[in-house]
Amino acid sequence: MKIVVIPGDGIGPEITTASKKVMQAVDSKFNLGLVLEDDIAGHDSLKLHGATVTDALLEKVKAADGLILGPMSTYDFKDESKGEINPSKFFRKSLDLYANIRPAKTYPGLASRVNDFDLIVVRENTEGFYADRNMEQGNGEILVTPDVAISLRRVTRQCCERIARAAFELAQGRKKHVSIVHKANVLKIADGMFIDICHQIGKEFPDVAIDDFIVDAMMAHVVRAPERFDVIVTTNMFGDILSDLTAELSGSLGLAASVNAGKSNAMAQAAHGSAPDIAGKNIANPFSLILSSGLLLDWYARRSDIPNYAKAAAAIDRAATEAILAKEATKDIGGTLGCKETGDAFASRILNSSY
Ligand code: NAD
User: Fold this and answer.
1) Are residues 23 and 58 in the same domain?
2) Is the CB of 272 inside a 6 Å radius of any atom of ligand 1?
């Protein structure tokens, strides 16, 4: 498997170095034959190439099987005509990475303010309220007058169908329960369609139970009783917000892993941002990107049917649970180690394990 690795901005280089170390460990332990190719995007690329991302980089990523994208300072990138393109948007749109899979769970030994839970947010990733990427040409945000702005939301049958199917397929291998999150009481047409399509796709999975929740009430439900949920399917913006909440409920935003999956490409990406407030201090939690890299291996395992990739993904998940219990982790999740030392300890744990 060929993977392009991009460090990103802020804490990106620190957590990407740790993740690469873990990928090298699983590669050697499970004979994966991984090829990790370094490249740049974001501020590094803007300085060197005059743009945060380039066509040459896209071609390289298309030719690879996967991408590990470090967090980007996307808020800094405001003017596309100056090469300031949001790399996250660029790859999601150019590679049609329509399913953003964001698992969150509690861990033994890590104090949590809520009951134990294990859920996955499945977020539509290519349209919705993301006006910078939901148009074929141009931008879905319009400044009508200096004091009037309009942001368009797009919801299509095709995107609803494929995200619903991704959610039901995941649920089949878990607790067989899909919860639809929407705002159909206000967005009656678009979210009404989203709910209807989810139910239609659900008929293909008769063993999977379905319920639905209005997004604002969902914020209360998921805090009050997160253990009720298994797979949650929702549109782009709602999923972005809800998954930061579920990550924080699991113990820290530093545990927020995700994979952006399409038909033939996938991108591992921490769900959080570049955390400039802690950049360069060796205190960032690398688990988010390490776990995301594990999800990428899992995606590849399903696609290629090579069992060792599934074993490597499971090993990363298990090592994270054990490391948290052993407090071999950063301070935000109860450990005492720096970012680099956490990555080193994680890699050693895998290499010395019997799994
Ligand atoms: P953020 O997610 O970077 O940080 C929010 C808080 O969580 C901060 O206190 C930060 O220190 C903490 N945090 C985040 N990751 C952590 C980790 N691994 N370990 C420990 N603590 C961690 O959000 P922000 O500060 O609002 O945004 C910073 C930049 O990131 C902005 O430019 C924003 O646009 C961008 N951003 C990018 C992405 C992405 O690339 N997908 C996502 C969200 C935000």
Assistant:
1) yes
2) yes
Ligand 1 and 231: CB distance under 6 A: no
Question: Domain span at residue 3?
Answer: 1-96+250-355
Residue 103 lies in a domain: no
Do 231 and 255 belong to one domain?
no
The Cα 314–Cα 308 span in angstroms is: 10
Whether ligand 1 lies within 6 angstroms of the CB of 251 is answered as no
> Model confidence over 160-180: pLDDT tens digits?
999 999 999 999 999 999 999
Ligand 1 centroid – CA 43 distance (Å):
16
- The letter for the amino acid at 110 is L
Residue 128 and residue 152: Cα distance in Å, rounded? 8
The predicted structure's pLDDT at residue 68: 98
CATH number of the domain residue 119 falls in: 3.40.718.10
Centre of ligand 1 from the C-alpha of residue 115, in Å: 26
CB proximity list for 91: less than 8 A, separation 6 or greater: 53, 58, 61, 67, 69, 97, 260, 267
Low-confidence residues in the chain, pLDDT < 50: none
Residues 6+ away with beta carbon under 8 Å from 40: 6, 7, 48
The two most distant CA atoms of the chain are separated, in Å, by 64
